Fold these 4 entries.
Entry 1:
Amino acid sequence: MTYRLVVHPELRREVTKLHEAWKQDPSSDAGREFEAFRDAMSALRDGREGDYIGKQLSYGPSSHDLRDAAEIKVDVFDEGGTRERPRPSHRMVYREFDPLPKVENGRVVPDPNAQPVRQIVAFNHRRDDPAAIAGDRLGRVRGQQDRNLHGLTGGGRPDVGPQQPGAQTTPHRLPMPQDVLRQILRDSPPAGTAPKPASAPEANVNRLPGPGASKSKER
């Protein structure tokens, strides 16, 4: 299964800066971060999140309520891990939503080719607390449960504990929220509407340049 990807606007601005650094020097720290982001993004698009260590996030008294999100651990910098106990430097936090409905003649009709949507919310070094960054971007309040997630289970507090055997590592698939729908319609407007200019600095973040082959380092 493949997914339609949406990148949170604040993250898109960060990735644009990483891309500029990559064009100047691919071997720089920022350039390596860009390449790792690109590879992890491709994995989420292609349903290859299993190429990375991942876990479903949740809620705790000192964390944001992220029961609708999951993370994958992305190896960018060598930080002294071992094969038995890897220490990937970065985290990518994402959510998953139902496909966009197909409408014909004012009616919603089945679409066998409809793609579920994954929204990438944060990509940061683990020391910067990517879960907290994602929580802030989603308007969550640290230590408070989000009433919109009532009844949703999670996989453990964002910052605590080993992964339990058999635990779900991908997000719960939920109905698409209005802000994500608006972003999709803005970035990929319906036929007959004015497209976003290709020269806009953030216009092509979802179609990153470079080799198509994934260079995922973590298994």
Entry 2:
Amino acid sequence: MRSFFIAIEGAIGVGKTTLARLLQPRFRARLLLEAFEENPFLSDFYADRTRYAFQTQMFFLLSRYRQQQAVPALLARRPLIADYTFGKDSLFAHLNLEGDELEMYERLYEVLAARVPVPDLVIYLRADTDVLMMRIATRDRAYEREMDRAYIESVRQAYERYFADYTRTPLLTIDTDNLNYVRDAGALAFVEGQVRTALGIGAYQRPLPQVELVGPARTSVAPARTTSVTSGWDAVAEF
């Protein structure tokens, strides 16, 4: 399988990391997961966004840039799936910063963004705000308990605007309100099929040992993989 770089995006609580982990074995890929818990300002930011926005955003910008510099080396070995894009940093900065702080941020972002690898495919996961709030409550991260619905709605709308005119890479949009790819194998197979179609690659076939034939020719045989797709899935609760 050729190496490719997939980045999964969407609002807080939509299930980016969950899907990245589920797709990893199906594409025999490496994972690049956002190290958001390393941000020492994050819990303070959710308690007082105005006061801690700049510190939080600058830490994320430099942390994400450092992670992205590892992408070429990771891709040299096998496919790579990330649970974020570098562009999300600017999206959140424009939500949380203003004035001189935003201007300073933008100058640094432009310099760094020019040096960041571009994914072969971006997957945009969508969900309604009520679904996002339910998933955030279910995973119960301590620093997210102070998060209010209005902020999540503003993040969701920002993502909708961002991807409405997105043209930088191929884009696959998936509505997850009623798509339970955690519990439903058919739902996950459906998502995998959509990703493979977007990338232009066939279904994964598990390699078998090569079979010796009479003469110089050698061959290997692998059975075709079949998948099923179901409908009417329940809303996901395990994100």
Entry 3:
Amino acid sequence: MGKADGFLWVTETGANIALLFVLTAVKRYCSFCSHCILNGTLWSCMYTYSPTEKKWYIPSYLDKDELCVVCGDKATGYHYRCITCEGCKGFFRRTIQKNLHPSYSCKYEGKCVIDKVTRNQCQECRFKKCIAVGMATDLVLDDSKRLAKRKLIEENREKRRKDEIQKSLVQKPEPTQEEWELIQVVSEAHVATNAQGSHWKQKRKFLPEDIGQAPIVNAPEGGKVDLEAFSQFTKIITPAITRVVDFAKKLPMFCELPCEDQIILLKGCCMEIMSLRAAVRYDPESETLTLNGEMAVTRGQLKNGGLGVVSDAIFDLGVSLSSFSLDDTEVALLQAVLLMSSDRPGLTSVERIEKCQEGFLLAFEHYINYRKHNIAHFWPKLLMKVTDLRMIGACHASRFLHMKVECPTELFPPLFLEVFED
């Protein structure tokens, strides 16, 4: 994502491909540019100048194809009291700033015809024509005045930007009473199923450094599986999965769905929600993630313990989310959005699930407005994390197939196999 002259755009790269994981799952209710994210609409870049072809910004007050009064080239605006092109504007400014006109000399007695072809052949006649058509020397600023003007412009621009942000925060709707009730249900479900809660730092235990460092089984894609680390992870995977299931069962709209759809939704979102819960417990000081609220692991330990490249994606997400300062309610609503993804294959109640997710999204956006985060475009940026989590889920599904080949089946807890096997 980028920025140019106050406009946002998304370049057509792999990031856009990643969006396809959530475009059908997340479809409405957004502000600013999040509507484009959710509907797959990409922004266009607003350029004033192209590196391959000169396309200068033309002010609205100019008539179409209006010409420079000095040389007849295409004009770009009023410069020093006259309508001129960029070339003559720059020539006039340099001449005055550097006091060059006394050194100009015409070889043809000052009778040169100045047009866009000949304008660079005689500086004296070009400058005389600039004066003749009315270009004002007193409007050309010296370096100190130009810098002062530029600074003033930047200060005014920054002030307008802050005013616009403040205005947008004031105008954005906050949750209705009905939405607050929905938010409370989701938040309570998360708190009740989130191991250790806000005390995870005090209660976590670090996995010993010697575990997860000795590769024993070669895994595909150049990864390694440390069976001792893998064994440690399997001890916490079953309660972690159970907590995700309990979270879902505490949501009435989930429990009202057909049993078959409940199973599909849980199998689809389980890794995504577990990854989110680990990512929000990233500790930059120790550079660890805390799994299931109790086991702190390094990037290398998680990678060698079976997750391979998926561990990098989870750690990167943790690093990114650390700047968002999400509260429990925001984490809970993210989980609800992931849970109610209507694009999971095999669902029968697609419209019903989609409507539930739309309700979560609208309440979520309004809660973000209520929180008033001091981060520009916070809502669309947060929605992009849904994309990251969906990617993690897809990568883990592929990784799981490799793990089943490389590791003995008896090492996998039954619930782990039940959730992640097709």
Entry 4:
Amino acid sequence: MYLSEKPRPIDLYKEEGPSMARDMIIEVPTNGDLPRHLHHQQQQQPQPLQQQQQQMMLGESSGDDPEIKAPKKRAETWVQDETRSLIGLRGEMDGRFNTSKSNKHLWEQISAKMRDKGFDRSPTMCTDKWRNLLKEFKKAKHQDRGSGSAKMSYYKEIEEILRERTKSAYKTPTPPSPPKLDSFMHFSDKGFEDTGITFGPLEVGDCQPYGGRVITVKYGDYTRRIGIDGTTEAIRDAIKSAFRLRTKRAFWLEDEDHVVRSLDREMPLRNYTLHLDEGLAVKVCLYDESDHIPVHTEEKTFYTEDDYREYLVRRSFTSLREIDGYRNIDNMDDLQTNTIYRGVS
């Protein structure tokens, strides 16, 4: 590299005119196709400070200077103080959240209050952080029941919000406001969303709250809300009607803690799973009446004693007997699953 004049110190705070420009000669290796020497003359004039600042604000989109980058966004990492502030604000506004409506305006209020406390967090960032906290709470609760706080920093704070919401479900409201429903925690397969935990009263439409005591029952892919203000038989009929159970099969409800609850109006307001009695499956070998030769075998499932009696009457049997046995089976309770029987006339 050859310079046309001696190098001089550069003052970065002093604007230099065109007279300060220098010629530069660069020697480039050749492969036979390129000229042996490349003469490049460049005149560069520094820009005012204000114009440089404007270029920095433009970021990388111009592509002029890879060293000038746009200011980075607010870091997604939350410090403890702002996380606790978010949980506190969300807990204070808990009763105003309604999963059947848009909660956008509430998150905007939370974001504004966070800003007043010195934490610049948008409504979307607050919503995402809250949902992540709920996911962590669900994971800690399920992995280590009763001691989830050991694996989550804010476990107790979120648990307190749930506990307060649970208590309010049992408080008698002041007339004319009817009782409101708390459906408690619901963990969906799609993840632990904010709509997955109902902290506020569930409502239908604009201002039509549920009245009375209501539980949530799930069977397969279907979920129904069942009122339990009536008698046990009324609750049972309501469940059968809701899931279109046209059978005498026995069923029961099991809560999220795997506790089977009796059907009555005092049962806890929780999410339940509906279980149907699988019945008692047996095989009955049918014979030709004249030759006493087995014709075919049919499979039967009995759910109640009445089902068993009706089958005997329809087949003109007095009882069933094991193929290789001698004891007559008069009651359904004496039948053995997947055993082959024959009819006794």
